[in-house]
Every structure is written in structure tokens, then in C-alpha cells.
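User: Hi! I'm working on a homework problem where we have to compare a predicted structure to a textbook description. Could you give me the structure for the chain below?
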Amino acid sequence: MKILVVDDKQDIVLLVKTILEFEGYNVESAYNGFTAVDLCKEISFDLILLDLMMEGKDGFTTLNEIRETKLNKDTHIIALTAKAYENDKREVINRGFNDHFSKPFRTTELIDKIKKIRKKTI
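Assistant: Happy to help. Predicted C-alpha cells:
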């Protein structure tokens, strides 16, 4: 399973990437929406974990541009965000994300969510 982790906080990207690589996943990383969109034009991902609040290009704009790419228009994209209220979750889904995952997070919950997605895509 090929996963893209996008967050402007390098420590978050490194943490998530380390966790997922330990679990055996192939992980690419991007520290902004511009790089994420460029990667999505070249690589087909099975899953993208995308922060909402980033400088330069926010997660919603990045999501829309990723959805316009040929390779990742149907990729499962999860908002990985500190916005954890119920209305935030609804907004994320209504604006095109497949799911919502709150920061801070428990490692086991993140891994379980990804395993469920993997089962659906196999």
C-alpha cells in the first residue's frame, strides 16, 4: 500500500511516516500542498493523509487539485487535522474527503483505520 503523508509540521510527517513504515507501508511525504499535488501527478497513491491547515495552500485546495489529477482522482483521502468538532468532521466529508482523523492521535487508532481502508481496497 502506497501512502502519502502531507503536513507542514515536519515532526508530524516524520512521526506518521515512521509509524507507517514500521507497519510495512510504502510512504512518501510532502510538507506543503504544492509538493503534494506535484507528487500526485506522478505517483498513484492508495491513501493520502492530508492536513487541513497549511501555509500557502490549505488542505481543501490541495484536495481539490489532487482530485483533478488522473492518477489520484479516486484515491482515498483522509483529513488529518486538529479540527475535531463534529461540525468540522461533517465539513471535511461534505467538501470531498473520504474520512476525518483527529490530531493528536493514538498510533493504534491510525493503524486500525488504515488496515480497514486496505481491506476495502484489496
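For your comparison, note the following. The longest helix spans residues 107-121. Residues 84 and 102 are 6 Å apart (CA to CA). Good luck with the assignment!
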